What does this fold into?
Amino acid sequence: MHRHKKSIIHQRELHSDTPTFALALRAALRQAPKVILVGEMRDKETIEIALEAAETGHLVLSTLHTIDASKTVERIVGAFPLGDQQVIRTRLAKSFRFIVSQRLVPQKAGGRVAIIEILTSTLRTREYLERGEQEGKTLLDAMKDGDQEGMQDFDGNIEKLIRAGVVDFETGLAFATNPGNLRLSISDIADETQREAAEKEDEKIAQSAAAAAPKPPVKAPPVAAQKPPQKTSDREEELVIE
It folds into this structure.
């Protein structure tokens, strides 16, 4: 499937080359690869081996079906028993480099645009991940404040697209992580959008009223009065010659 170009790629197919996903990962570690691509971390054993590979100096790329960075961490930690979760938090905090999430949002002009959320490994994010999120100390707060470290959150991205006119206001709110906060941050656009919507609604109502109003009856043109016929005199006018 993959041709060798600037690297050598070894691929394993489940049930053909290996009986289980976990066995394929363990076998890959013995071949001293530089990069390991795990299609999806579906279960506890796969996550455990992926963490082990990352801790031993390998670059591990994988996917999870989650909606944002916080849910990704919860999914990984929640796959383990309660007694092991703090250890997994510590291991994940030390080994992860990036958590990238994506949503596809419909555009005004048609099609969809990808909005990206990026969580990078910094001292602050590692601390929040290891100790757990608390009030005022969440990964979302860290992403909002982490522009200099290359971080960004979904709602900040959506706000930029709404202000640029790429995404509709209501559509952006539907795909936001926190619609209430996003509505407040773009309240100036919200007021303008509501005003334009009200004007359009008034215009539609006026057009409907005009179409439904009864038309005045058409008056027939007035008939010209006929002049009575002039009576001719019985006597012809006499011509007087002096």
The mean pLDDT is 83. The radius of gyration is 38 Å.
